[in-house]
Amino acid sequence: MSKARSIHSKQARLEADGETHRRDCECARCDAGFSPSEREREVAGRRVAGKQGRRAAERASERRKETARLKQLELALFFQQTNARADAEVQRLRALRVQAASDRRMDEFLRLRKDGLSVELALAEVDRRFPAAGPSGADNDNGQAAAERTNA
Ligand SMILES: [Zn+2]
Q1: Inside any domain, residue 9
Q2: What is the tens place of the pLDDT at every residue in 35-73?
Q3: Dist. CA 35 → ligand 1 center (Å)
Q4: Which of 135, 131, 125 is nearest to 145 (CA)?
Q5: Considering the entire predicted model, what is its pTM?
Q6: 48 C-alpha vs ligand 1 centroid, how far in Å?
Q7: Does residue 116 lie in a domain region?
Q8: Cβ atoms 112, 124 nearer than 8 A
Q9: Which domain holds residue 96?
Q10: Residue 14: beta bridge partners?
């Protein structure tokens, strides 16, 4: 936006702060002797410096906040990945345990059949020795191990 033109042809020459008329300003006001005093220049300079300092401090604060936010995200992602890996490992071990239990049941069934038990009796015996692991049973092999020991 251009400054409103005065009735005089000469426009005000301003300092970098956009307000203070320069020493070599030849606008009507300055020509008439109303140019800023050295004191006013000093105050204006300090005001600009203060404003720049505050802006720099705000930018630094924003950068710190952004850095902290990114670190938080990174940390959250790290834990998320760690949890996902741990969950996958638990799933894998559960599947292995289910497979192992199934293998034990099959081994026992075949052994009992070889010993001459009928299919029905062998199945009943396997069920008695290896109670089918329910959802809670799969998470707790203490009970199963105890059952196997008492039946051995
Ligand atoms: Zn001026």
Answers
A1: no
A2: 999 999 999 999 999 999 999 999 999 999 999 999 999
A3: 6
A4: 131
A5: 0.41
A6: 19
A7: yes
A8: no
A9: 28-151
A10: 21
